[in-house]
Design goal:
By secondary structure, the protein is of the alpha+beta class. It is built from five helices and six strands, in the order H-E-E-H-E-H-E-E-H-E-H. Strand 1 and strand 2 form a beta hairpin.
Length: about 130
């Protein structure tokens, strides 16, 4: 109807309801598009969600493994609410690998499944790529 509403938010769940987004990091636009376009164009990895009773220990262990094992198909692990989000190479099946290496160190997997990336996953991935961290 020719009306534009400008919204600014840090809440990526809220941003999902917008028609078009500009993701901004340190005052610079890092991506533009619809939520679906941003997820498709700027999420080069699959996202896996891990639920465990030992969240902190699992996070520390997996982050240590990323640097120690070159062939590991994981690029990043981050806390997402009461779960961990694991960014892995497209097409990699982590459903046996992750529970196995966690169990080998006394850590349990309650649930592990591949999920659709959230806008927060996209934003974190873009910011880390921009800053050269992972």
């Amino acid at each position: 109807k020719g009306v534009t509403v400008f919204v600014t938010t840090h809440d990526m769940d809220e941003a999902e309801y917008c028609d078009r987004l500009a993701l901004i990091d340190q005052g610079r636009i890092v991506a533009l598009g619809t939520p679906a376009e941003l997820k498709m164009q700027h999420m080069p990895e699959d996202v896996w969600e891990l639920e465990t009773d030992q969240l902190d220990d699992s996070l520390i262990f997996l982050k240590e493994k990323i640097g120690a094992i070159q062939e590991l198909p994981i690029r990043e692990v981050a806390v997402f609410g009461n779960t961990l989000h694991i960014l892995a190479k497209k097409g990699e099946d982590l459903s046996f690998f992750i529970p196995s290496i966690l169990a080998g160190h006394g850590l349990t997997t309650k649930r592990l499944e591949k999920i659709e990336p959230s806008l927060e996953d996209v934003f974190v991935s873009l910011v880390e790529a921009r800053r050269g961290t992972s």
